[in-house]
Specification:
The chain has three domains: 13-124, HUPs (Rossmann fold); 133-320, Serine Threonine Protein Phosphatase 5, Tetratricopeptide repeat (Alpha Horseshoe), CATH 1.25.40.80; 338-502, DNA Cyclobutane Dipyrimidine Photolyase, subunit A, domain 3 (Orthogonal Bundle), CATH 1.10.579. The chain contains 20 helices and six strands. The protein has helices at residues 32-35, 41-60, 80-91, 104-116, 133-140, 148-159, 201-213, 230-248, 268-272, 278-290, 296-320, 348-360, 365-379, 383-393, 399-410, 427-432, 454-465, 467-471, 477-484, 488-502, and strands spanning 25-28, 65-68, 96-99, 121-124, 163-164, 167-168. The chain has a two-stranded parallel ribbon. Strands 3-4 form a two-stranded parallel sheet. A two-stranded antiparallel ribbon has the order 5-6. The N and C termini lie far apart (55 Å). The structure holds flavin-adenine dinucleotide and iron/sulfur cluster. Iron/sulfur cluster is lined by residues 347-349, 427, 430-431, 435-437, 440, 442, 444, 453-455.
């Protein structure tokens, strides 16, 4: 039975009927998983540490295991495929079974190797999700456009989540309007600390390996404190429910300088590695609301992210691949600015978001969508380059969830399948939501001139560049109409400044 680094669940469906007398588990640490994109040190360390802890749990549960450790000095980087090929030759199994993988590339690679060995790769349903890809495909069939809201409501009804009879709890499906507050001038005040887990001997060994083997990869491991076992993941869940869920909804979209964690759950990596199931996380939030420990707006806002968005993007990925990764509806061709790998920019919001990402492998949703993603969208970066960056840097990055969020939701690369309109805004949005504009050399209210905020300039440039396409979108009509009100001189000034930003003459280095 094959177990991948994001399938660390002793109850996974592939274990059904597992007989330790004749069956065995196969796991491997393949270098290629850290090099096919330039995987950050935090991301690689989390996967390797969690895999090694899971291997220990497997041994303790008496399940025979063939585990291949990454070599510290391999001349030829191993792929999952080459490692499996060698194991199939030496172990000669009669069957090869696994839980559905989360990545098209890995699935193709493993399937080819197993078939070459004259066997069939048997795939079991991943029970850690509420819905199956087949259910999503049935929902999508015949619909002209796909929207999260309808799928989410279907799942709530089918699984009886936040329901009172056949009606949504509180009489509303959606509390988004209550969930957009910023902190105001005084900031968030004391925020509950993040759940931290000091590296044990296994994690220390992994940290040494990653620092040696992937020395030049982005980020650092000094602050590594992610949950790497199921027990630690359960502790993280508990601390989120008790300490942060009550204010999650209210401040879901807020940001604040120097506060990377805020009221978010930081559970995405534990969920994606399958240390936690979507069901137990959703039920914990619903139970907290029913027990009067959290308001409905928070419980619903949080559950919408998991029962809604997470299930939805998985359906999009598996019904749209493999061509999805190539899509580029806006024909964007620019390269990613080099400072995305260092944080060396004088735009304060981007510097904060990128540096924090490299330090922790984490940024919350609004930073990903409305700081880094917004900038690359309006700059016109090729969505594939943006996708590679997001897949590299975040500890929760697995392609089935990262790609639709990046290419679809954030870069509009799929032309509107994921999002009904491109998420574009000026620097004033970032300022309103708590961004560090007060300490930035740019001014979000200015779109032209030396102090113009690059977001504000690029926003108008983006609308001008895509005016014809956007005019066809009813949700963009108002924004596009504002372009028509600009004089030719104003348009020219925006264009010139935008060109300078694109050439990297503005916003590139903290010292520029
Ligand atoms: C450009 C971009 C790239 C992203 N890449 C990833 C990725 O690689 N992996 C990933 O898990 N999420 C990704 N997301 C979604 C989201 O930003 C992260 O799940 C979230 O920031 C993780 O932090 P958290 O656990 O504190 O989330 P919380 O804010 O506490 O949300 C709770 C949970 O809901 C789920 N969730 C929230 N938003 C989404 C979403 N849009 N899609 C799917 N699940 C969601 C996550 O499992 C998360 O743990 C991306 C979003 C954007 C805009
Ligand atoms: S002024 Fe513009 S670049 Fe500076 S922090 Fe605000 S939004 Fe970001």
């Amino acid at each position: 039975m094959l177990v991948l680094g994001d399938q660390l669940d002793l109850q996974a469906s592939a274990f059904d009927g597992f007989d330790p007398a004749q069956d065995a588990v196969w796991m491997a640490e393949a270098e290629e998983e850290s090099t096919h994109v330039w995987s950050s040190k935090q991301r690689t360390a989390l996967f390797l540490s969690a895999m090694r802890h899971f291997a220990q749990a497997l041994r303790e549960s008496g399940r025979p295991l063939h585990y291949q450790r990454m070599k510290a000095d391999a001349a030829q980087p191993a792929t999952l495929g080459t490692l499996l090929k060698a194991s199939l030759a030496s172990l000669s199994p009669q069957r090869v079974v696994m839980t559905a993988p989360g990545d098209w590339r890995v699935w193709q690679q493993l399937q080819a190797v197993v078939e070459e060995a004259g066997l069939k790769l048997e795939i079991c349903e991943d029970r850690q999700f509420f819905s199956t890809v087949r259910e999503f495909a049935a929902h999508a069939k015949g619909r002209k456009s796909l929207r999260l809201e309808f799928f989410y409501r279907e799942l709530r009804q089918r699984h009886g989540v936040l329901m009172e009879g056949d009606q949504p709890a509180g009489g509303q499906w959606n509390f988004d309007a209550d969930n957009r507050e910023a902190f105001g001038a005084k900031g968030p005040g004391p925020v509950p600390p993040r759940a931290r887990f000091a590296p044990d001997a296994i994690t220390q060994e992994v940290i040494e390996l990653v620092n040696m083997r992937f020395a030049k990869h982005p980020g650092s491991l000094e602050s590594f404190a992610w949950p790497v076992t199921r027990g630690q993941a359960l502790q993280s869940l508990r601390s989120f429910i008790d300490e942060r869920l009550p204010l999650f909804g209210r401040y879901e979209d807020a940001m604040w300088p120097g506060e990377p964690w805020l009221y978010h759950s930081h559970l995405s990596a534990a969920l994606n590695l399958k240390l936690l199931s979507a069901q137990e996380v959703v039920h914990a939030a619903e139970d907290a609301w029913r027990a009067g420990q959290a308001p409905l707006q928070s419980a619903e806002g949080f559950i919408r992210q998991i029962l809604g968005w997470r299930e939805y993007v998985r359906g999009i990925y598996w019904t749209q691949m493999p061509s999805y990764v190539e899509r580029n509806a806006l024909e964007a061709t620019a390269e990613l600015p080099a400072w995305f790998w260092t944080g060396d920019t004088d735009m304060a919001c981007l510097r904060d978001a990128v540096q924090q990402t490299l330090q922790h492998g984490y940024a919350h949703h609004i930073q990903r969508l409305m700081v880094t993603g917004l900038y690359t969208l309006m700059l016109g970066v090729r969505p594939q380059r943006v996708h590679e960056w997001y897949l590299s840097v975040y500890v929760d990055a697995v392609e089935w969830v990262e790609l639709p969020n990046t290419l679809g939701m954030s870069q509009y690369g799929d032309g509107g399948l994921m999002a009904s309109k491109p998420y574009v805004a000026t620097g004033k949005y970032i300022q309103r939501m708590g961004g560090p504009c007060a300490s930035c050399r740019y001014d979000p209210a200015q779109r032209e001139g030396e102090r113009a905020c690059p977001y504000t300039t690029l926003y108008w440039d983006f609308l001008m560049r895509h005016e014809n396409l956007l005019a066809k979108n009813a949700r963009m009509a108002l924004q596009v109409k504002n372009v028509a009100r600009m004089s030719d001189d104003q348009k020219q000034a925006v264009k010139l400044r935008a060109e300078a930003i694109k050439r990297g003459e503005v916003g590139c280095g903290a010292s520029s």
